[in-house]
Amino acid sequence: MNWDYDLIIVGGGPGGLTAGIYAGRARLKSLLIERLIHGGQMMTTDLVENYPGFPDGVSGFELSDLMRRQAERFGLEFLSGEAVELRPGPPHTVVLEDRQFTAGAVIISSGAGYRRLGIPGEFEFTGKGVSYCATCDGALYRGHTIAVVGGGDTALTDTLFLTRFADQIHLIHRRDAFRGEKVLQERIFASEKVRIHWNTVVEEIQGNEVVEHVRLKNVRTGEPSTLEVTGIFIFVGITPHTGWLKSRVAMDEWGFIFTDEQMATDIPGIFAVGDARHKLLRQIATAVGDGAIAAFAAEHYLTGLSKGGGQ
After folding, report:
1. Is residue 120 part of a domain?
2. Is 133 designated active site?
3. Which single residue of 132, 143, 194, 230 has CA 20 to 30 Å from 246?
4. What are 59-79's pLDDT values in tens digits?
5. What total number of domains does the chain contain?
6. pLDDT tens digit string along 85-139?
7. What are the residues whose beta carbons fall under 8 Å from the beta carbon of 164, sequence distance 6 or more?
8. What CATH number is attached to the domain comprising 219?
9. pTM as predicted
10. Residue finishing a domain among 199, 217, 234
11. Same domain for 60 and 104?
């Protein structure tokens, strides 16, 4: 069986880069396709403090660069482009806007994006006081006053996590009741550190070099207000970048890809890793583990194909 590459990796986040490292060491001819910049969500984190091996933390940019350089050293090829379709094989075909490539195996590492509020200051202060990950950045706000936006399970769980660090948390919710589990609500209501702002939305995030305050509006009365905070955590959902797959592989109702413990999807030879996968925890460390497993599983899959007929 003939193909352009043994393995194509779609997406250059930590899962995809790790898969590239392992594939290179296995001497697989591999291509990584990334539509934006390599590193994925790592690039939006100013300081990564919970990735093993960096006791003083490491910038998201530096960690991304180190991973890419390591993958390049083992022979991974890189291509800037956007995958728009996946046609299962074998060989599998990854279609870009202006070309297409075939491969014996494909690893989907297209990631996910945090849903944004779309308000002034949100983009400008991302990584400078605006965060979408409590476990990534919570420790940076020890002793601070911060804001949290959201009312679902993630918002409530992460608010409780942030009480370990912040002195005061303003929990902002656009409705008059939370959607999260009752037990989480009870813990929120019992916390002396949390002040709830019902029926309220954030209209603007303001500051100079970093976040200094947020401008609010009560959606029922229209009354404006301002909070002085040093950070704002936004938990209004996460959206996987899997629309391009056109449901070729099995997904949950939100578009996250189902896999087994070997990162294999329901289609032989197609694997998924990182934030695009249906999983419990989305972190750099878990994406790296996914990538290592997927590359190893892909190598075994390709070996099986070779024994069954060869390329």
Report:
1. no
2. yes
3. 132
4. 888 999 999 999 999 999 999
5. 2
6. 999 998 999 999 999 999 999 999 999 988 899 999 999 999 999 999 888 899 9
7. 138
8. 3.50.50.60
9. 0.77
10. 234
11. yes
